[in-house]
Amino acid sequence: MTDGTPGAANSAAPILSRGSGSSFLGDVWRNFCRHRGGVIGLAVLLTIVALVVLGPYFYTVEVGQPNYRARNQGPSWDFPLGTDNLGRDLLAQLLTGGRTTLAVGISAMLLSLVIGTLVGVFSGYWRRLDGPLMRLTDLFLALPILPLLLVAVMLFRDTLRTAFGPETGVFILLVTVIGVTSWMHTARIVRGDVLALKRRDFITAAQAGGTRETTIVLQHLLPNVVSSIMVSATLGIATAIITESALSFLGLGFPSDYPTWGRLLFDGVNFIQITPTRVLWPGLAISLVVLSVNYVGDAIRDALDPRALGR
Amino acid sequence: MFAYTLRRLMFAVPTLLAISFVIFALLDLAPNDPTGDLPLTIPPEVRDQIRSSLGLDQPFLIRYLLWLQQFMINEPLNLLERLLGVELGNSSERLRVTSWATRSPVVDLIIQRLPQTLWVIGLSYVLAVLIAVPLGVLSAYRQYSWFDQLGTFLSMVGFSVPTFFTGVLLIVVFSSWLGWFPAIYDTNHRVTDWQSLVYQLRQMAMPVFVLTLYNTSQIARFVRASLLDNLSQDYIRTARAKGVKERSVLLVHALRNSLIPVVTVIALGVPAVFSGAIITEQIFRVNGLGQLLIIAIQGADIPLVQTLTFIFAILIILFNLIADLLYAMLDPRIRYD
User: Residue A143 and residue B159: Cβ atoms within 8 Å?
Assistant: First the structure.
């Protein structure tokens, strides 16, 4: 950020005309609050995240502790959401599984953001790299993603398991394959933004002033593309969570003693007749998170819309 | 336009080659051995013979080029023969891509599975388009009405709730509790009379509904946004000002223009019809292409995985091209030449 001044407000000034006296972030927040779905979504999302992060500290039932006397039970005081076919408590599994699911979603999103932003900035700023990098993006867009994900997971799961242990190995694998196959839209958006920004006077001024290229990119370009990255970041979490759950659902994700929401759903399907709630809760959790993330993404996009900010 | 099409087609060839190479290399890089599942009592020299019968003793490049020749030249020739009913060259000696698991040609397996996928998944996509367009139009035309509020909420839900949850939920409710629809799709079922037709429709109901819900919400969101963009344009105000009937303002002036991007989105979604329905096929046990891929992946049947993935890639590139060409045809402002 440029020296001392409030960073986002200062550097975003070139793209967004704003009323005097109000900060950029304040404007965005006010616009965000106008979007009812977004506010509700944010509340639901924060609640779920809080439950998942803090829940295991308050609900101290050991995860994955089998209890053969209490198999396939419905909700009761001892087991608020019932138990599975080995008598393991569903609520405890749901809370711990949520941590993994959210961690995979957020890390995969971060990875795809980093790759996407790098590719976008490089191809937008340096004309020589534009052609090859955009062809690479097109190539990735033309890859059949879900089949390739399945293939990659099948092929490399065992190697990574032996190298890093069953849980960490699968975590690394899932985050990598999801991140590597979902950066393309971010790259295109960032490239478009960079191409538009590159021609603006403040970049020319910085170049004329002899600023180094890396400094221009880091201090002048990146802060201005943050807003569009934000939107793809939120939507990226939703995609990553769905992909992870889909892989787990197909039996290609985490091992079954290591719960994630997708895995719980997958394991529950076989006991659908006995304990339908085993399917209901993880599915509901995934759906609620994705739904609220999508609403938040919509709201951020609307809030960052220059037409809305100009009002 | 013709020159543009040709140029795009020319560009598609290296892209496809690159993709096929990436897929082949990825599968080859992987540390797995197709003879790994065989009993340990098989002596090593027999194991080597099995490997060489699968063509695994050849270097990577040779195997890749062989696959390329088999898939790009031999199989199209076979299909042509089947279509025309004539023999082109000595077709019995032509090498085909064979599955390791079933030892039958991969293309034959795909042809067996194609009808189920096309019926269930294709039907759901057609239904989705038919429902989504009127839904999106009404939603946009009555923006902020209760219909729009409900429609946007429902499409957001349909778009966010993953198909593996809606599918399972439907099975719980309609097949486990109510018993209205069968949970498993029976491919051997033949439609011969009225009763069997009803059964066919019943077993198709749930998978089709799941996919229709998902696709409808995506397309309806797009139709709504696109129509809203157009409804606020000046030419709509002009049309209204000169007294054009509201009906034709909406359906002729606004809708025709706003459907241009929608048509391309629909075209772009077609490849996902084939590959994205893997999960739905898996839930309802529809033995289509997606399920074939899953079986192949679980059995490490590399030639089958390779071919299927590559066919999905061809579809994506083909429909990208179709989308671009449709855009140019429908929107007179776009000129590629």
Answer: no
